[in-house]
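protien #1 (seq + structre)
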Amino acid sequence: MHVVWTDEALADYHQNIDFLLKEWTDQVALDFIEDVDAVISLIVSRPELFPLTDYRGIRKAVVRKQITLFYKISDNSIQLIRFWNNYQDPSRLKL
């Protein structure tokens, strides 16, 4: 399976990295990137590993306690939908 990033997922990902570089350190940002890579590798190898959400067909994987990755499995790809900051108001989450 190949991985497809939505525009929202890509924007969220870069915003998280920018925040970490500004507020923390290069190492913290690098650790986040490595954590994302590890979670995506798990999803590719076992797409149904992570639980379904209340949104039809969408699964969630906790990257870190602060960030959840929402994704959807299709016939031959995995679509990364959003990287969501878990401290945000959940009613604002649009998938």
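ok now protien #2
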Amino acid sequence: MSGSQSPPPSVDLAGSSMSALVHAIPIAIERTGRAVVLIGGLAVVCRLSSPYRATTDVDTVDRRRGDDPSQLDLLLSSGAKQAGPAGALIETPAGTVRVDVLEVKDSDYEPLPEDPSDRLHVLAHGWADTTATPMILRADNLDAVEVRVAEPGPLVAMKLQNLPNRPSDKEATDLLDISRLLLDQSTARQVRSQLATAPRQIREDALLHADLWFRRNARTSASKMKQLPEGRDTTIDDVKFYGELLFETLR
């Protein structure tokens, strides 16, 4: 029909562990009465044309406005068990799933943090929430689930911000996620166009992080990426190339 909207893009997620993650999304929505906005590893898997890794939890951004209750508190009050400072364990028909809630409040903007990493956390997660778009997730023996998923550009900005605060194995995964998002046929163009047109402060703070991890510490980043099977062929020149792509885009 003329003027009708095309359906959201869809992604098929194979395996029992991925099915459990998809199960958890409508359960979290029902328990909180709030939307789930996927970020983190599951969002990366959804956006790439060729997902290169699995993930084990659901990450969502909770953009709290005014007196909105905390999404994490709503999950816990519904019977979910606390898992770390920002996580809750949800029981699903396919197993237990950890849901991590990354919260951004109005007060975080008034004023913005002076520290570039803290500031990028607020701005990148807020940007992810504002620009997330619907996708259809399909998994084994489960009805399709529609959920908003962070766009590739905000995913890279959030991954850059995460790097200083991560254990070594998660740091390596974040570096690999950034490299895949920069090069994948489904995301490369979006990453560059979205980062290039991002608000100035996001570009400036993301550039500081890109300089640290993909230029000044390129050798260390390459070494970390090589520790994972998916990154074993990474060279320092590869890391510097990713840095050049980021610099050209963010300047």
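The mean pLDDT is 95.
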